[in-house]
Write a structure and sequence with these properties.
The complex is a heterotrimer.
Chain A lengths: L1 H15 L8 H15 L5 H12 L5 E7 L6 E7 L5 H13 L15 H9 L5 E4 L2 H9 L3 E5 L5 E4 L29 H11 L5 E8 L5 E8 L5 H12 L9 H8 L11 E3 L2 H10 L2 E5 L5 E4 L17 H30 L7 H11 L6 H21 L2 H21 L5 H15 L4 H39 L1 E2 L2 E2 L9 H9 L33 H18 L1
Chain B lengths: L8 H13 L2 H13 L3 H10 L2 H13 L5 H9 L1 H33 L6 H18 L1 H25 L18 H14 L5 H4 L9 H27 L1 H6 L3 H7 L2 E2 L3 E2 L2 H30 L6 H17 L4 H46 L1
Antiparallel strand pairs in B: 1-2
Chain C lengths: L1 H18 L10 E11 L7 E8 L1 H5 L14 E8 L2 H10 L4 E3 L5 E5 H6 L2 H9 L8 E5 L4 H4 L9 H15 L5 E2 H8 L7 E9 L1 H4 L3 H12 L3 H8 L4 H7 L5 E12 L2 E6 L1 H11 L5 E6 L7 E18 L2 E17 L8 H29 L6 H8 L1 H7 L3 H7 L1 E12 L12
Parallel strand pairs in C: 1-4, 1-5, 5-6, 13-14
Antiparallel strand pairs in C: 1-2, 2-3, 6-7, 8-9, 9-10, 11-12, 12-13
Helix pairs in contact in C: 10-11, 13-14, 15-16
The chains are: A alpha+beta, B mainly alpha, C alpha/beta.
């Protein structure tokens, strides 16, 4: 099945992508070389500024400012994009020192022949500085917010790091709220995100490996991992897959997800994403690789196993029992969200013997006079609910509430009163809907929501047998999935007892000695042994006696 | 090599456990009680234990021919043409048994759950599922099975535990009143089911540590002994031997007697889920063995193209092999065991004997050459 | 080929749709049967009368608007069919029902006396083979016609079937009967040396029939009391003040569990009355709770009530020179529930006296039961099975003659009784003027 999809995908891919048209890395380079040959030898400032103009066009946000050095010997120009730069830095650290008429020390020797070096060493004071070998390289930087300093007669170009733009503040993540735990979520600015991670992991081996993807968007992608923890082969594989991305645009990490996941035709998300900095840091510490993408707060976590979707970072901050109970609850809820309507239909129209007699009687009573068979009723109600939910998400908040009241309460009530649907079905559908939202990961819950419908239809055809048939197909599919070499159903399959316990039970931190075995990390141990600080002998008792003595003293006085 | 995946010894053991347990549990109590009466549980124990003989033979064979499947070493041992013939007959055996499994499956569902639905629906859908599993390959079957084994074992234990209130230990006494004869007669069918461990001979080379295959097989057999004996004991303690023997699917009726405070009751769906999931794995294993065998006999590099056509054969067989459920039960009780022994005991023994003799002869020749 | 494969699911899915939906019956198209009464009229060509008690969900659930149409009527409707076999009669009953007969929720099967005499085999075969009938169905014997029971009006519960089930559940607390699920009956039927039994359900006569002179005595009492008769009536008729008003018009009958039907093989042999049932329960070790009254050894004429809390029974087969006998050891336990005399019974000597009195009472009950069982030739305790287990050879030697042998068999009964507690009082309250 999977292979069939893959084959199809390959074919489609070939059709969409006639050779040479888009995979134009080589051609572009050739063109660039021609351009370079045409302009570079002269290296005169005017020519090069023409070249800039030709490249960037007459965009209003492109600023080109020509000026001469203080002693008048060298003509220079700064090129930057308005809105992406900190103008103060440009003024104070680039333009003013060069224009200054009082050049002292070595700077006073500035002339055309030593311009590059003198400017670089003595005249400018920006924190970040690169020397770009040619205009193409420099402009790439300029387009992401740096400032280029072009020097008359010099091929090399100085580029100053001046990136600064209006971005969203670090904020509480909207999709993954938590009662306990840090409130910081990633933002759209990748640099802020790296800082959030670096602030959590101060280790020297934390690596941010930058890659670029998207020929037109030129999006920054960073692989984040701890060098002496991560599994080399997993890292290599991530690198290979990210490097192989060949597209012109990456606007969200979802693009990357689709390009690099193992089974693109699967219903199930094979890469977890998160907005929470602490969750990403935890994943890195477990030995996973986090992929940060510029312009989106969603970071990808690979490899991913299915059971990560029932885990929330809060489980690890609350007491272990709470985490355990919540996970069991989520596991239950997962099943409810997937199967409840299907099982209801199967039971009500095929296996009535399964219901306890009083329940059977009340369901039978409520179904008197309902015109549809249970399957039809369920499909109708589920469909209606999905519409309501979709409408609720898209509408403005104020209107959304009105719609949900009209849709959910009034229409639902009217439908029951009119005898079109039975109250039992409304209960089933709403319980399912609520369960869907109790799953922490939205992408997993949406997959389950979609799979509910085929199961429902199978239940309507063959009863419980149909449901099991559908579930077995799903199980087979899930068992066949892998995410970067890790089985998707791990640690339930291939897992050790320790791993399985950790997935479902969330042991206390002082007992979590090892990292997940299936990630095959280079440093499998988190701590040396089970260590839990016990109270010092007699410590508590002494404190209590001291306090008691104090009290008695107070009484005497 | 048609198969590229590898499974761990634990997964192999679990696969074997489900293979020898899942289909057996439903029919076993009735057929053994028919022959052995009160001592059915002894029959089950003895019969299932006998599976250690084929296990020993195939692991010995496999250690003599490391990295080769049953079908491949057939040729190594018997020569090209006779080897291929024997290997083909093994393929036939796997196909045939698979068809029987599918038929049992359909009959049970049609009898107990959806009486109006035609048999073909169940048979075809199971074959479809097994075909899909085979297409995905051994690794996927093993992984799915790790999930299913939890389901099967836990639901069986739940059912047995809940039935304890109705147990009457008097149904087991006196033990062996009629001597050992009935016990051995009753052990025929359990021996047939545990002989299906022969499938291990096919998957043994795909273990990450093939040397441990014998342990996984032994663990699987022990697990089977425990589960089947528990099941038979539970059913018999509730119904008594005579009534058990008269039933078609005792476990199903057994579950329908469970009623604890009107709350813990109506567990039939659990039985169906267990049965469907377990038999699905078993059918997949046999399907896989047949497909892989056929590919290896004909030297194909890939078994997947064969899957669909084999499925059509299995589905057709499963419908046409038996006219009704009586024939099926008759076959299983009277013919099946001996047919099974031929493949689980007879042919492997022959292979082992020839292999040993060849080994001896080759050793002598070498000695001569050296001398 | 690749594209074809992609299309395969789309081709297969309609196929599934084509194949499906045979077994589907919507829940509101079911006639949910809660009890079946099976009667047998010997000598007729179509002897079986099957009566189904079908529940009307709308009347029971009373779920808001849905129940609007069902108010007032009884929640159960009876449908009857007559046929040469049970299945045929059932099918005939179905001719009268607008919905599909659904037996999965059936809980009680009432067997008319003649049905039970004709043989259980027909009933059990029908129950086991039917995919809908559950083996947890409770089997009851009704002296006379079984369907008459179902025609009774309900009293406390929502339907007559719930009344019966309630009675059976309650009987486990009072040890007046021993309910038997179908599979237990089957287990006994298929065990050598073991006969099945079932509780007897019958229409007991109303108070005025139990005490024929009740009305006259009541009138006399009222006349004697004069003006304050109203109060006296309420105090005296503690059994049910509200009932007596309507009773005068038409003497009602009451549904009661009364005794045990004992089978010989699969045929009804006879009945054990309430006392004998209790004796049988002592023998079977199934006594849960009951009140046993013994006369006070200290104060003749006064009674002492013992609340039985449990018992353990051990039966040992003894074979001496080919003669088979059994030794039964019954250990009874109970609490002192109430006493009539004013003597303090809570001393070790008096309690031991009570113990032996209780043991004697139990032994008497047990002997009565045993005598009745031997008279009927039904081994419902399973002496034969115990012999088979303990001494297989001896049992095998008797072979098929067990029922006859059982009539003559000697059983030694030894009872030990223990009164453990005396309730909330340690001695009776002295009444001081």
């Amino acid at each position: 099945m999977n292979n069939a999809f893959l084959a199809l995908a390959r074919k489609l891919g070939k059709k969409i992508k006639p050779p040479g048209k888009f995979s134009g890395g080589k051609e572009e380079k050739k063109r660039e070389e021609k351009v370079r040959e045409k302009y570079d030898p002269g290296g005169s400032l005017r020519e090069r500024l023409d070249q800039v103009k030709e490249r960037l066009g007459e965009s209003s946000d492109v600023v080109v400012r020509q000026f001469a050095s203080g002693n008048g010997r060298v003509r220079v120009a700064v090129v930057f994009i308005d809105g992406l730069v900190d103008k103060k830095i440009i003024h104070d650290h680039i333009i003013r020192p060069i224009q200054s008429e009082r050049l002292t020390g070595k700077a006073s020797e500035l002339n055309r022949s030593n311009a590059l070096e003198t400017l670089q060493q003595h005249l400018t004071s920006g924190g970040e500085l690169w020397v770009a070998p040619d205009l193409t390289q420099a402009l790439k930087r300029v387009l992401s917010g740096d400032t280029a300093l072009l020097i008359d007669g010099e091929i090399k170009i100085l580029v100053f790091g001046t990136r600064f733009w209006q971005g969203r503040m670090v904020d509480e993540p909207a999709t993954e709220a938590a009662v306990r735990g840090p409130r910081e979520g990633f933002t759209e600015t990748i640099r802020v995100n790296t800082s959030l991670l670096r602030r959590r992991i101060h280790h020297e081996k934390l690596r941010f490996e930058t890659m670029k993807a998207g020929r037109r968007t030129g999006t920054d992608i960073m692989l984040v991992y701890i060098d002496d923890v991560v599994n080399r082969r997993v890292l290599e594989e991530v690198r290979r897959r990210v490097a192989a991305i060949d597209t012109d645009s990456i606007l969200e990490s979802g693009y990357i997800e689709e390009f690099i996941e193992d089974s693109p035709w699967s219903m199930f998300p094979q890469i977890e994403h998160t907005e929470r900095a602490d969750k990403a840091a935890a994943a890195i510490l477990e030995g996973r690789v986090v992929i940060l993408t510029d312009n989106t707060p969603f970071a990808l976590i690979v490899p991913t196993s299915f059971f990560q979707f029932i885990q929330a970072s809060e489980d690890y901050y609350e007491r272990p029992f709470v985490g355990f109970a919540l996970r069991l609850l989520r596991l239950f809820v997962l099943n409810v969200a997937l199967m409840f309507p299907a099982i209801y239909v199967a039971v009500v129209s095929f296996h009535q013997e399964m219901l306890p007699t009083p329940l059977l009687l009340s369901i039978a009573a409520t179904r008197e006079g309902v015109p549809f068979p249970a399957v039809g009723e369920a499909l109708l109600m589920e469909g209606t609910f999905e519409v309501l939910r979709e409408a609720g998400v898209r509408l403005p908040k104020t209107v959304g509430q009105a719609i949900s009241i009209v849709g959910g309460l009034i229409v639902g009530d009217a439908a029951i009163r009119a005898g079109i649907v039975s109250p039992a079905m409304v209960i089933v559908v709403s319980a399912t809907a609520i369960s869907t939202f109790a799953i922490p990961a939205f992408n997993a819950s949406i997959a389950l929501r979609l799979l509910r419908f085929p199961l429902l239809i199978l239940a309507g055809i063959m009863g419980l047998y149909g449901v099991i048939f559908g579930l077995l197909i799903m199980l087979l599919h899930l068992a066949s999935l892998q995410s970067f070499g890790v089985p998707y159903l791990s640690p339930l399959v291939h897992g050790t007892y320790d791993d399985i316990m950790k997935t479902f039970a969330r042991p206390p931190w002082w007992m979590s000695i090892k990292r997940p075995r299936l990630l095959a990390t280079s440093d499998p141990r988190r701590q040396s042994a089970t260590v839990h600080t016990r109270p010092a002998p007699g410590y508590e008792r002494e404190l209590f006696h001291d306090a008691a003595e104090d009290n008695s003293d107070a009484g005497k006085r | 090599m048609p198969e590229k995946g590898k499974i761990s010894p634990r997964q192999a053991g679990e696969l074997m456990f489900i293979t020898t347990t899942s289909a057996a549990i439903l029919l076993m109590p009735a057929i053994t009680a028919e022959a052995a009466g009160r001592d059915a549980w002894l029959s089950v124990m003895a019969g299932t234990m006998s599976g250690f003989v084929p296990l020993a033979i195939i692991t010995w064979l496999s250690s003599r021919h490391p990295g080769r499947t049953l079908f491949q070493y057939c040729e190594d041992i018997l020569g090209r043409i006779p080897g291929k013939a024997v290997a083909l007959s093994f393929v036939w055996f796997f196909l045939h048994v698979n068809a029987i499994i599918v038929r049992q499956f359909g009959d049970f569902l049609a009898t107990a759950f959806l009486p109006e639905t035609p048999l073909s629906v169940f048979n075809f859908s199971l074959v479809l599922l097994a075909a899909l599993a085979t297409h995905y390959g051994l690794e996927t079957i093993a992984r799915a099975n790790e999930f299913i084994i939890l389901l099967v074992v836990s639901s069986l234990l739940t059912i047995v535990t809940l039935s304890v209130v109705h147990w009457d230990p008097r149904t087991f006494f006196p033990i062996m009143a009629e001597g050992a004869g009935p016990v051995f007669r009753g052990a025929l069918l359990p021996a047939y089911f545990s002989g299906q461990i022969i499938t291990l001979a096919v998957i043994l080379p795909y273990l990450t540590r093939p040397g441990q295959g014998v342990f996984s097989g032994a663990a699987a057999l022990l697990g089977t002994v425990i589960i089947l004996t528990t099941g038979v004991i539970a059913v018999q303690a509730v119904f008594g031997p005579e009534f058990t023997a008269a039933m078609r699917f005792p476990i199903h009726l057994f579950v329908r007697t469970i009623n604890i405070g009107d709350v813990l009751t109506r567990f039939e769906p659990l039985v169906m889920v267990t049965w469907v999931a377990g038999v699905f794995v078993k059918a997949s294993v046999f399907y896989y063995c047949a497909a892989l065998g056929l590919a290896q006999v004909f030297g194909l590099g890939e078994y997947r193209p064969l899957v669909l056509s084999l499925g059509v054969i299995i589905a057709a067989f499963s419908i046409t092999l038996f006219a009704d459920v009586t024939e099926l039960t008759f076959f299983l009780a009277r013919v099946g065991p001996f047919y099974g022994y031929l493949y689980s005991l007879g042919l492997p023994l022959l292979l082992l004997a020839v292999s040993l003799i060849r080994g001896l002869l080759a050793g002598r020749q070498e000695e001569k050459q050296d001398g | 080929m690749g594209r074809l494969r992609f299309l395969l699911p789309f081709l297969l899915f309609p196929l599934l749709l084509l194949s499906g939906c045979w077994s589907r019956v919507e829940i509101n198209k079911l006639a949910i049967v809660k009890a079946i009464a099976i009667d047998y009229l010997p000598g007729r060509r179509a002897p079986y009368i099957v009566t189904l008690a079908v529940i009307r969900p709308a009347a029971v659930a009373g779920g808001g608007d849905a129940a609007a149409g069902g108010e007032g009527g009884s929640p159960t409707r009876l449908f009857t069919g007559v046929g040469a076999t049970i299945d045929l009669a059932l099918a005939r009953a179905g001719f009268n029902i607008s919905r599909r007969i659904f037996l999965s929720h059936n809980e009680v099967v009432l067997l008319g006396e003649e049905t039970a005499r004709h043989g259980l085999h027909h009933i059990t075969d029908f129950i086991i083979r039917n995919p809908e009938m559950r083996l947890t169905n409770l089997l009851l014997v009704v002296p006379g016609m079984a369907h008459e029971i179902l025609a009774q009006g309900e009293r406390l519960e929502a339907g007559i079937t719930d009344e019966i089930i309630g009675l059976l559940e309650q009987s486990r607390e009072t040890s007046e009967a021993h309910p038997q699920e179908t599979f237990l009956v089957l287990r006994r039927l298929s065990t050598p040396g073991f006969d099945p039994h079932m509780p007897v359900l019958k229409l007991g006569p109303h108070l005025s029939r139990v005490i024929p002179e009740f009305e006259r005595e009541k009138r006399e009492l009222q006349e004697r009391a004069g003006g304050s008769g109203q109060e006296g009536k309420n105090g005296g008729g503690g059994q049910g003040g509200g009932e007596s008003g309507s009773a005068e018009a038409a003497p009602q009958t009451e549904l009661t569990l009364a005794g045990t039907a004992a089978f010989c093989g699969d045929r009804l042999a006879g009945y054990l009355n309430e006392i004998e049932t209790r004796g049988f329960l002592w023998l079977a070790g199934e006594m849960r709770a009951a009140i046993i009254t013994i006369s006070d050894p200290q104060a003749p004429g006064e009674k002492i009530n013992i609340l039985i809390t449990g018992n353990i029974t051990k039966i040992k087969p003894m074979v001496k020179e080919g003669r088979i006998s059994f030794r039964v050891e019954i250990a009874a336990e109970g609490d002192l529930a109430s006493q009539g005399s004013h003597t303090n019974l809570a001393t070790p000597e008096k309690i031991s006296g009570l113990n032996s009195a209780l043991a004697g009472a139990v032994k008497a009950e047990t002997k009565k039961a045993l005598a009745k069982m031997q008279e009927l030739g039904t081994d419902i305790v399973g002496f034969g099975a115990i012999l088979n287990r303990g001494n297989h050879k001896a049992f095998k030697a008797i072979g098929d003659r067990w029922p006859e042998v059982f009539r003559e068999i000697k059983v030694d009964i030894h009872v030990t009784a223990n009164i453990r507690r005396t309730g909330q009082l340690s001695r009776p309250v002295r009444i001081i003027r």
